Amino acid sequence: MTKETHTCSVCGKDSETTICRTCEAKIRGEILEEKDKVEKAGHTDTGRR
Ligand SMILES: [Zn+2]
């Protein structure tokens, strides 16, 4: 009980950082995807609604 264990705030698994590498990569990928979608939507969505 002397060791402080960190857990990933996303998946809850043991991690050295707040967010484990797996989730970090996932989040980064999602952000990139979202950004890509937004950019694409901005180009294609021309007054549609
Ligand atoms: Zn995780």
Main sheet specs = none
Q: What's the domain count?
A: 1
Strand content: under 5%
Query: Taking all residues together, what is the mean pLDDT?
Result: 83
Count of DSSP E strands?
A: 0
The small-molecule ligands in this entry are:
zinc ion
Low-confidence runs of at least 5 consecutive residues: none
User: Judging from the principal axes of the Cα atoms, what is the shape?
Assistant: rod-shaped
Instruction: Quickly give the structural class.
Output: mainly alpha
Helical amount? 40-55%
Order of helices and strands: H
N- to C-terminal distance: 58 Å
| Radius of gyration, whole Å | 18 Å
Number of helices: 1
Give the SSE map.
Blueprint: H1 21-44
The chain binds zinc ion.
Zinc ion is lined by residues 8, 10-11, 13, 19-20, 22-23.
Can you put this structure into words, describing what you see?
The protein is mainly α. It starts with 20 loop residues before the first helix and ends in a 5-residue tail after the last helix. The model has no long low-confidence stretch (mean pLDDT 83). The structure holds zinc ion (ZN). The site of zinc ion (ZN) has 8 residues, from helix 1. The site of zinc ion has 8 residues, from helix 1.
Based on the model shown, name its key terms:
mainly alpha, rod-shaped, 49 residues, 49% helix, binds zinc ion
